[in-house]
Design goal:
With about 120 residues, the chain is mainly α. The chain has three helices and no strands.
């Protein structure tokens, strides 16, 4: 075998290499906006309204406190051996999405006659 490096693997070309920050600089990417900051940015850019919002309800179709209490009480009654103490945000998001989908299905299911759903 020869001693030359003909079989050396070179990194695959990936396009242009972004410039590296110098020793004193830190490269920071802006974080994507979400929640209240996103709503304020939309108000400012689309409607030229510079107003601070108090809060944005991310789950308008459910009462989070009532859902938490119901789930914990139901779990306590039906599964006394489990000691559930908390309800995750993921569970609340799933329940909110299920309620939202149920409302959408109800609108599609309702006949177009009349004015009352």
């Amino acid at each position: 075998m020869s001693a030359n490096n003909d079989l050396a693997v070179s990194p695959a070309p990936t396009g242009e290499v972004p410039p590296q920050p110098s020793a004193g600089e830190q490269q920071t990417r802006p974080r994507p906006l979400k929640g209240k900051a996103l709503a304020q940015a939309i108000l400012k850019s689309e409607f030229n309204i510079d107003q601070k919002l108090k809060s944005v309800n991310s789950m308008p179709f459910i009462n989070r406190t009532a859902v938490r209490n119901f789930l914990l009480e139901h779990a306590k009654a039906t599964r006394p051996h489990n000691k559930f103490r908390r309800v995750s945000e993921e569970t609340l998001r799933d329940i909110h999405e299920a309620v939202r989908q149920m409302l959408i299905a109800r609108v599609h299911r309702t006949p177009s006659k009349g004015r009352t759903m």
